[in-house]
Every structure is written in C-alpha cells, then in structure tokens.
Amino acid sequence: MTSDLRVRGRGSTEAVDRRTDRGANAPAAPRAPELLIEVEPHNCFACGALNEGGLQLDLHVDGDRCWTSIALDDRFQGWDGIAHGGIVCTILDEVMAWSLAASDNWGLTARLNVAFRRPVPLGRPIRAEGWITTNRRRMIATGGRIVDPATGEVLATAEATYVAADQERKRQLQARYRFRLIPDAADRGAG
Length: 191
Known about the structure:
By secondary structure, the chain is of the alpha+beta class. The protein has helices spanning 13-18, 85-98, 167-177, 185-188, and strands at 3-8, 35-39, 60-62, 65-71, 107-116, 125-136, 139-147, 154-164, 180-183. Helices cover 18% and strands 35% of the residues.
C-alpha cells in the first residue's frame, strides 16, 4: 500500500503568476505532464496517511512551490473558533519543506519564523503555499503563507531555512519512504 501526493509539473500559468521572483506578465513555460509523488505509508503528523490524529494533508507540488487546501476540524482549536498557532506553524512548515522536492532535496527544518496576521478559522477552507527563495548547496531558504481562498486575505506568512540531507541520508530516506515521481494516470492517455 502506498500514499499518493498530487504533483503538478513545472511551469503552469498559475504558479508563474504567484512566484515572488517573476511578475504576472512573465512568459509561462510550457506545461509539463502532471506527476504524482508516491511514498510508502508513514506516520507524519502533517502528511502521514497512517496518523489518524494528524492533519493528513493532501500536498500538491508545482515546480519549486507546494500547496495544500484544508478546512481544519475543531480538534485543532486554540482559542474558540480559531486554529492553534502550533497547527498553523505545522502547516506552513510542511508546505515549505515539500517545496524542496522539485530540486531533489530532503531537508530538516533549521529555522522557522511565522507572522500571524489574522486568526485562521476552523471549519472553513484555507490554502497554504510554500516556495523556495534561495537554494545554496545544503542550505535552502523558503517562504510560505496561508490565505483565505474566499477573500484572498493573507492569514499568516513564514520564512524558513532547511538543511538538505547529505547523499547517504537521502539514500536512506528514499529507501524508507520509496519516494518516486510517477506519471499521473490522467496524463498517460493525453498526447
């Protein structure tokens, strides 16, 4: 049994328009076929399919950007009606960490800084996005945000630094999680 995380190929117009280093008028690269990240079931609180008490985030990757949409249950409450700050940090950490996947990196969080701009509501959809801002050998800087998709209002922003695994540790992680990119079944018939 494996878990699938949806991955979209590099260069979609949606990703180019939101990038921090390219404007909305920049030409879009041709759309690559959709891919899936396939991993063995695991117990990660944020993305693990085996963690019944976790978030079980459905993660999408597009180039150096990762995103997820979720409506948080009451069990993730901080104050009445709003998400606990630790849950907000976890979601941002997860989308920023998975943004490393496109550059064939696995990393550990070295530093995380979150700015809470507005309360993150429970029971309503939110969208979290993470992206790479700088990739220097083993130190990778990222940015992230949580947005209310209904209004476009930014609820939280983040910056983080990840230390990429060395080749031996990366080999061990790939063996454990059997991380691989596979063509999306919907794209195999297109052509």
